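Researcher: Quick sanity check before group meeting.
Model: Go ahead. Protein one:
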Amino acid sequence: MTLSIRNFILAALVAAGMILTSTALWIPAKARLAQWLLADAWAESLDSGTAVKPWPWADHWPVARLSVPNMDIDQIVLAGDSGSSLAFGPGENMQAQAMTHAARIITGHRDTHFSFLRNIQPGQTLMLSDHNGTVIYQVDQIQVVDSAVTRLMPTAFPNGLILVTCYPFDALTAGGTLRLVVMASAVEPVKPLHPGYNVHMAISRPTATRALDGLAAKGFIQRISSEQDGREQTVQPTAAAVEIHAALNEASGVVTTRIKHTIGEEVFADTVNNVRGVRSALK
């Protein structure tokens, strides 16, 4: 994201806040606009290996990316689950994250980022990516608990993922003690964030070369190795476009590619919808 676009979104946030502060429209507007800036900060964080604030006065920063492939959910998760963080995105309980063999707990508002939990079902796939890689989870349990009585214990659900939001979704007033708790177990170990992928080009060598040259020139990939005939090549996504592994075959309407990689073809198919901006890379 260029500096001018970032400044425009910041200006939009401030202006919209001034106009809509007294109305309920400001809450979802702020949540949506903020995710654009958070995605940019997350990409910079992956590239630099350090925490990057989404805007200068922010008291939070991105720590992970949460995806629900079959619901088209792709959200940046912030450090901390305080009210100031949750206004802009889902927030992770950092105390739980620091524990060994404990569940990761992420909280979001029921009327913005975590409104999709209304339709979550057991068996659905969740994906959580951070600087260490990506873990694939499957939803096991969905419960409604009273937070005044029940306390979530991260160590009681080793290596799991817990999503929490207020309940019920249609409550007329906020501040109740009921919580919807979604518990998911890891079904795949951590996948490296930037693995190499074997790409078999089902097209002519010149077209394949132009396709990969175009992606490399845009900063999406770098070559690692290739076969002599040029039809089998190993490429690596750059930090600036970590999602490229899920959509090389979506990069252009005239390019057909088939990617075989470590996360498997089923997960690959599910994650294609999470990629942004790659489709026009060769245009």
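Researcher: Fine. The other one?
Model: Protein two, sequence then structure:
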Amino acid sequence: MKRYGKAGIASGVAVVALIATGCAPTSPTASEEFVVDPSMMEDAAEGVVTWCAQKDSSGAFAATVDAFNAEFEADGYTLELLEFPESTDEWRNQFVQRQEAKSDECDIFSSDVVWTAEFANKGYLYDMTPYVEDRSDEFIPSTFETTEYEGKNWAVPYGTNVGFIFSRTDRTADAPQTWQDVYADATTAGTLAYQGSAYEGLTVNFLEIASANGGTVLTEDGSESAINSPENLEALEFMVNGLAVGAASPAVLTYLEEDSRRAFESGNAGLLRNWTYAYVLGKQNPAIADVLQMTPLPPFSDAGQPGSGILGGTNMVISRYTDNPGASLKAIDYITSVDGQVPAALIGGQPATIYAAYDDAELQEALPFYETLVAGIEQAVSRPVTPVYALVSRAIYSNVNEALSGSVTPEEALENADAEINEALNTF
């Protein structure tokens, strides 16, 4: 049981309409009652804030909790960590079960960036727009895309990630400048390793190339599929041709992140598309440490678009059912500050979302590629923003995988994906 030291814990939150009607809205998107703003931190009730998060074996979250408590416990605020299983599905399910039960057990939650629209649509979250706008200058702008749904911000960017191209200076003299360079180099430098198995990783890998070619997944209002476009077809045909000419090995059709990284580090691949952790681990491998180079994802030839990474990471959200939104916001304010994000980067390897974190000398020493990292994050975009993202992603990765394996043509793959995405969009 949580105990709070002040009356009026809903200070700053208009709940009169709820009390009068005796019921809650089906979604905060239809109501203005559940909104947090910076002033709520000043009047926050004392007590315990529970941070629900995916299990973190690095200890970064626990270190942040300890630091918060050292600073604020004397003022009556305590942060506690409740860790959910490592499995992404169970991490999500544990939170959803509590929200469906209207439980106040989780005051704040570390949410995967792709869940924002779904959770907002279901009425699980506080609208954080005023608070996010107040801190907007602090953050790398692209990371806000992952917090938005229907014109509002439902989360605060906490940790981010983006893909890069890794190559070896002993096999390729210059870093590739376009995706065409990547595949051309791969035909002579020992193939490109990427995540081609039928799972979320392939959705990201495909969208990185498609977005760089001007392709999109949904219409601007998110109501219909836009996957079956000339830009996306050209990107998929490019990937299929890469397998046909030997720029990528058929083995990539079974690769997850670690499979591709191991192929690159062992010398079986000359180039690699992966996340930032691959650089850290590669620098620990004497076989490639001195020849490893990392570059942001490149443009798609002369498409007129910049290179386009696809953002990963986590956001911090406030549960609609918290008893203390003010203290919850105070906790998130700390977790997403320099004091919270630098330890997350140093201990947990989680790239920060605020510029000031990259001014930290210790972080710069630990991540000597930080300038390249920030550049990659700045040019990245979010995955499709929709409450049915999981179904949309499945339509992409399953059909793209079939095209890469030769089971269907690229045209058939996008036609099938288009139908499946529209079917998913019609479910909400």
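Researcher: One line on it for the slide.
Model: Residues 164-310+388-425 form a domain with the D-Maltodextrin-Binding Protein; domain 2 fold (CATH 3.40.190.10).
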